[in-house]
Prior knowledge:
Layout: H1 3-14, H2 19-60, E1 64-68, E2 74-75, H3 78-85, E3 90-105, E4 108-117, H4 120-123, E5 131-134, E6 146-150, H5 151-157, E7 168-173, E8 188-199, E9 208-212, H6 213-220, E10 225-226, E11 228-233, H7 239-250, E12 254-258, H8 259-262, H9 264-302, H10 304-312, H11 317-353, H12 374-400
Parallel strand pairs: 4-9, 6-8
Antiparallel strand pairs: 1-11, 1-12, 2-10, 3-4, 3-7, 3-11, 5-8, 6-9, 7-8
Helix pairs in contact: 1-11, 2-9, 2-11, 2-12, 9-11, 9-12, 11-12
Amino acid sequence: xxxxxxxxxxxxxxxxxxxxxxxxxxxxxxxxxxxxxxxxxxxxxxxxxxxxxxxxxxxxxxxxxxxxxxxxxxxxxxxxxxxxxxxxxxxxxxxxxxxxxxxxxxxxxxxxxxxxxxxxxxxxxxxxxxxxxxxxxxxxxxxxxxxxxxxxxxxxxxxxxxxxxxxxxxxxxxxxxxxxxxxxxxxxxxxxxxxxxxxxxxxxxxxxxxxxxxxxxxxxxxxxxxxxxxxxxxxxxxxxxxxxxxxxxxxxxxxxxxxxxxxxxxxxxxxxxxxxxxxxxxxxxxxxxxxxxxxxxxxxxxxxxxxxxxxxxxxxxxxxxxxxxxxxxxxxxxxxxxxxxxxxxxxxxxxxxxxxxxxxxxxxxxxxxxxxxxxxxxxxxxxxxxxxxxxxxxxxxxxxxxxxxxxx
Length: 408
């Protein structure tokens, strides 16, 4: 066993008999433990929130989305579709028309986001898990166009799927109308569809109505034009990799983004919040670590005679520094060990039993999502190492100085 470690362990256990120094050491240990535990738990919550948001995006957003560089729409041709379909990793290409429109139902109206999709949309099976009433079908048995509406639109218009008499009317201003008279129905294109299903994901998607692309094309006047193309990738391929390959094929006329890029602002905000929380909790651990500084400083005063005796026996200043650095490490790492184990236990209990609820009736999950990532635990350990070195160095340096050979 290393000599400096053996002496540091002896000092650690022997000083516990000294009430005041022992109290400061225990306070330091407890402070490091609580700070480390909080760091592990909070970082795990942020990881869980990031995973939850990605799962929400995965329910509605495509793996890769292609939009025009300029304008809201672009011409879609068979050669263009073939070139995209030929890219390695592409499974399905869904043609999409999306724009704002006006929805009428039983004398009520609201602004909606109308999304027209082709038949490949149902093959993606994304929205199936979010359907809370009805079914995911865009056409009835007799070819009647159906609309898949969000829970927010159903509540806003009091839509009943059981009512087969009252249709959902979709209105959009005619392109050749210069001045829109809201009181005149002649200023709008109108199409009636039947609500066939209701989905709920979360509030950001609460104003969507999904219809067959032919309905959206006729209503919005998109003659063979589309607002975007949505790509579903094959298993085993990454969204970023397929996105890059599609971008190289299409050139600079199109913007190609994977799902994370489409939601980059929210993911970046979570990352920034996680960074600032890490910095804040690191300062809290540093404040707790200051007690290590005072504990080592008083220990150095108490052990002055022992240090002088070590020098007379041939010890070097480096050995004395190592003794006090090791002493600080024992206090810090013991606290950090308890903190990490406690943080892991709390996260495990939250995952298994959902101890802390989200407190929202309409939330997709009942309890706060938590995800443990070992990199965060290693980062917490690295923070403890840096803080321990920072607060232990000065007392260790001072402990060695009085006993240097020239000053005995």
